[in-house]
Amino acid sequence: FCADAQTVAFFATLVAAGLPPIVDLNDLVSDRAIGGTMPSFTTDADHTRSSVRDRLVNVNQSESNPYLQFALDTLATRILLCNSSSGTPTAYGVEIAPGAALPVASNFQGKAILRTENITVRREVIIFAGVFQSPQLATNGLMLSGIGNSSHLQEFGITPILDLPGVGNNLQDHDEISIIWRMKQNFSLLNGCVLQPDPAQDPCLEFWEDNGHLNAYSFGGTVEAFTSQSADSSEHDLMTHWEPAYFPGFIRGDLVSHDI
Ligand SMILES: *[C@@H]1O[C@H](CO)[C@@H](O)[C@H](O)[C@H]1NC(C)=O
Ligand SMILES: *[C@@H]1O[C@H](CO)[C@@H](O)[C@H](O)[C@H]1NC(C)=O
Ligand SMILES: *[C@@H]1O[C@H](CO)[C@@H](O)[C@H](O)[C@H]1NC(C)=O
Ligand SMILES: *[C@@H]1O[C@H](CO)[C@@H](O)[C@H](O)[C@H]1NC(C)=O
Ligand SMILES: *[C@@H]1O[C@H](CO)[C@@H](O)[C@H](O)[C@H]1NC(C)=O
């Protein structure tokens, strides 16, 4: 990476433009830092990137694993709750709708009556959620499960289980507009690379597979610059991002097939 003249020049330009290097982006002191940086990645001795996803797929594929099952393209529509003997609402399962998706998802098929199934548990339900529609669905299902502002839930015929008026409130989005730049020259780091998933069609991928993962495809890193453009704020509001990947922009449902 360091030998790539254009990438080095790119980073040097950031520094010359008054953006100091951010040494560790994950350090709390870097939270609002203005500067240029490269995020850290986890790679193994074979220069292969590793991730939590890889671990989950490995466990799923392991013969000795009867426990972990993935339900892809499945919507959690409700947490099934009952009263424990102490009167505390207790989750005993999840109602799911296989094949269904949120309106923001690429596989959303339009409004439909969902066919649901119940999965019950012996021990506990652990919920991970995102931002959009999570309070409605299960912060995935909190509100549909009866957790939220009681009067609001009753307007939709949902029996309140726990009156928590804060659920679903105070969402603060950050407006984001992305501008993608086409560079005048190719980065020499990617000479001959076409960023395709088939090694027969991509000499760089073929080289990567045959030569101990030693080229830009192992890099996986990005160069990022955080700057502030607003006179009234010292927080960064502009992020410039460079990575050796084929990224045609944000295209609904099409990102994965082009990502490396
Ligand atoms: C998990 O394993 C099952 C059974 O082998 C398979 O059908 C499914 O596609 C796997 N899921 C993932 C996400 O790898
Ligand atoms: C749980 O118990 C409370 C108090 O007894 C009651 O008001 C509520 O309806 C019960 N909820 C469910 C889901 O049974
Ligand atoms: C799932 O459980 C809920 C709550 O007991 C029930 O209302 C619903 O009918 C169940 N759904 C199915 C498909 O069994
Ligand atoms: C709860 O919902 C009701 C009915 O939608 C609304 O009038 C009220 O302001 C809400 N309360 C809070 C604290 O958001
Ligand atoms: C950049 O690389 C692509 C793919 O290898 C090639 O088709 C294109 O001609 C190159 N452009 C320049 C300006 O070298």
Report on this model:
The protein contains six helices and eight strands, in the order αβαββββαβααββα. The chain has 260 residues and is of the alpha+beta class. It starts with a helix and ends with a helix. The C terminus is likely disordered. Bound molecules: 2-acetamido-2-deoxy-beta-D-glucopyranose (NAG) (5 copies). The site of one 2-acetamido-2-deoxy-beta-D-glucopyranose has 6 residues, from helix 3. Its cofactor is FAD.
Give the beta-strand count: 8
Instruction: Note the run of SSEs as H and E.
Output: HEHEEEEHEHHEEH
What characterizes the major β-sheet?
3 strands, antiparallel
Secondary-structure class: alpha+beta
Organism: Lentinula detonsa
Protein name: GMC oxidoreductase-domain-containing protein
Keywords: FAD, Flavoprotein, Signal
Cofactor: FAD
Please name the defining characteristics of this protein:
3-stranded antiparallel β-sheet; disordered C terminus; binds 2-acetamido-2-deoxy-beta-D-glucopyranose; GMC_OxRdtase; 6 helices; 260 residues; alpha+beta; 16% strand
Explain briefly what this protein structure is.
The chain has 260 residues and is an alpha+beta fold. It has six helices and eight strands, in the order αβαββββαβααββα. Bound molecules: 2-acetamido-2-deoxy-beta-D-glucopyranose (5 copies).
Walk me through the topology.
Elements lengths: L4 H12 L18 E3 L14 H10 L12 E10 L5 E10 L18 E4 L26 E2 L1 H6 L6 E2 L39 H8 L5 H4 L3 E5 L10 E5 L12 H4 L2
Parallel strand pairs: 5-6
Antiparallel strand pairs: 1-7, 2-3, 3-4, 7-8
The structure holds 2-acetamido-2-deoxy-beta-D-glucopyranose (5 copies).
